[in-house]
Amino acid sequence: MTVRGELDLDSGKLLRADLRKVLAGPTSGVDLDLSRLDFCDCAGLEVLLELRRSALEQDKTVVIRRSNPVIDRLLTLLGAQELFASAPRQCAERVTTRLAVSGRGVG
């Protein structure tokens, strides 16, 4: 799925519904192309983290296949890049736990 434009509180509401539909389909997960995303704030990041949580509950994945420097920097600053990598689930769960324990939270 390609996401472009801005991902913020308003656009996140619309995207959240689309992402839920994709995840509910007969897929093993969602591959995201964020290379055309111009802006992402904390509300937009929450949409991505919520998608990831839902995917884990369904034994599915969310992988960012393409990104851009803005998104890479945001995820790096939060220590969240590994959450959207194609790594094994146990590794992703360790990162989630680490983020929650460090006080940054994941949602």
Q: Could you tell me the radius of gyration in angstroms?
A: 13 Å
Strand proportion, as a percent range, falls in 15-25%
What integer is the average pLDDT?
A: 83
What string, H for helix and E for strand, traces the elements in order?
A: EHEHEHH
- Helix and strand composition category: alpha/beta
Calculate the terminal CA-CA distance, rounded to whole Å.
Answer: 22 Å
Described by strand count, sense and barrel closure, the largest sheet is: 3 strands, parallel
What are the segments in which pLDDT stays under 50 over at least 5 consecutive residues?
88-107
Approximately how much helix is present in the residues? 40-55%
Biggest sheet: strands side by side, in what order?
1-2-3
Question: Given the structure, what is the number of helices?
Answer: 4
Note the overall shape: globular
Care to count the β-strands? 3
Would you mind describing this structure in some detail?
This protein is α/β, with parallel strands linked by helices and 107 residues long. It is built from four helices and three strands. Strands 1-2-3 form a three-stranded parallel sheet. Helix 2 links the parallel strand 2 and strand 3 (61-66). Helix 1 (9-24) packs parallel to helix 2. The radius of gyration is 13 Å and the shape is globular.
Brief synopsis:
The protein is an alpha/beta fold. It has four helices and three strands; from the N terminus they run E-H-E-H-E-H-H. The chain has a three-stranded parallel beta sheet.
